[in-house]
């Protein structure tokens, strides 16, 4: 990565600096997005940028750029860094001001940073599936805002990693919410079920693509809360995220799901999702 975007300007990576009193650094006072890149093209960028603006609005940050301007800037960054496959990370904070818990008064401009990350598709996980654990969801009650406050998510992900697992499936009491960095789906009686998009989960862009694909391909789907017991009894379980795409879950807390192999509906959705990527970004290298 040779270049980064800082406050509307594309500059050398080594020149990209943020003030020590930036509120993102001091308080986690900001929001972010990650956009996937395939074949040098942005995937579902418009939806991600709309969510970025919505998240910022939700905490009182007004972006000084339109979605069109943001798109043009990250496309230029993408080109300058010659990224074929990977991600663009974008972060917006409330800006630089003397440390104070109260929002700064006056016209403090927000800080915008973006950079590219080279990353290949997780083909082994997509083919074989991943292991997960269950953990109590200890996060705040505005998980629909894609904020920088990810400490609880990191603790859950670390717990999973220490047990040799890819993801931690979170639950509040007996109700499953989502993964530490993913949305969770189960298949019950041939129907795909995932948590409704409310304040307890992040409304995933990949999740929305999956829901749309289900509707267009006669796959029954319901958005509702499901329980840990339903998770344990599910015919299939899978997760979705920008970077993980549609990943089968083959084990939860040491217990196999569908005899430890990806299920037929999961594999069908993987195929449909790949076709959607190719529709927007061109033929994928497998």
Explain briefly what this protein structure is:
This protein is of the alpha+beta class and 286 residues long. The protein is built from eight helices and 16 strands. It is globular and about 55 Å long.
- The overall pLDDT average reads 97
Please state the CA-atom Rg, rounded to the nearest Å.
19 Å
Q: Helix and strand succession?
A: EEHEEHHEEHEHEEEEHEEHEEEH
According to DSSP, the number of beta strands is 16
Looking at the chains present, what oligomeric state does this protein adopt? single chain
What's the tally of helices?
Answer: 8
Give a short account of the largest sheet: 10 strands, mixed
User: In whole angstroms, how far apart are the ends?
Assistant: 24 Å
Structural class: alpha+beta
Which word captures the global form? globular
| Unreliable stretches | none
Strand percentage: 25-35%
Name the helicity range.
25-40%
